[in-house]
Design brief:
Layout (H helix, E strand, L loop, with lengths): L11 H8 L1 H8 L2 H8 L4 H27 L4 H27 L14 H16 L2 H25 L1 H6 L6 H8 L1 H20 L2 H26 L8
């Protein structure tokens, strides 16, 4: 899965990929993703994940909108702005359809951000608002790149499940993030981060690396807490 990706070590994002090998291997080994690919993830766990991902997308869309405003040129701004709109509309609509279509267990109360979800989106919005464009772009990249890799690999592992049951509750999610359109968006995001790194100082590239690593950590925690939730202290 993620650990099988090869790099040429000639781009800044190649370095970022190698730098996060341990974290990516941990993502590969997540029980949540294994059961999702096998189609055996409990429906209530998948619902929890989709609810949290919907909350995450709202915050991520805001971060991408800020990133678009800080972009160095109109073409770059257009990509981040379009990605922001897709997160707020296309992906959110898919999540809403999953949550309200009847295939998943009914909602028990209004969903609230998990600790990891709130921490992740708060970090991304803060990075977009307070860091340089290059650092903010590096922080935003793992959501594109990790999801594209996970989606591609899940599409392969879940092929038999989807072939046997095209209406399986997980089919729509898997096919969305494994689709060529999303793969291309991830490649564009990576190219923009490489371009930003080329124009950055050594100090700024070090900050970009830290931002990317932190976001990959959050990606790992976000997947894992869907299966192993961490309740908030009682209030």
């Amino acid at each position: 899965m993620l650990r099988a990706t090869t790099t040429k070590n000639d781009l800044f994002t190649d370095h970022l990929w190698d730098r996060t090998e341990v974290l990516r291997s941990a993502i590969d080994d997540l029980e949540f993703l294994r059961h999702l690919g096998e189609g055996t993830l409990p429906l209530e766990v998948f619902r929890t994940y989709i609810e949290q991902d919907s909350l995450y997308l709202t915050g991520y869309s805001k971060a991408l909108a800020i990133l678009a405003a800080k972009s160095p040129d109109p073409q770059t701004a257009a990509f981040w702005a379009t990605s922001s709109a897709n997160a707020a509309t296309v992906e959110s609509a898919m999540h809403n359809e999953l949550l309200t279509g009847g295939a998943l267990p009914p909602r028990q109360g209004e969903p609230q951000h998990s600790q990891t979800c709130l921490a992740y989106v708060s970090y991304l919005i803060a990075a977009a608002a307070t860091e340089s464009y290059a650092v903010a772009a590096a922080a935003a990249l793992p959501c594109f790149w990790i999801y594209a890799e996970v989606g591609r690999d899940l599409a392969a592992s879940a092929a038999k499940v989807i072939a046997a049951d095209p209406a399986h509750p997980y089919a729509q999610w898997v096919t969305t993030y494994g689709a060529e359109e999303f793969q291309q968006a991830a490649a564009t995001a990576r190219a923009l981060v490489d371009a930003a790194a080329e124009a950055a100082s050594e100090q700024e590239r070090a900050a970009m690396e830290k931002a990317f690593v932190l976001a990959v950590r959050y990606e790992l925690m976000f997947w894992d807490t869907a299966l192993r939730p961490q309740p908030w202290p009682a209030a």
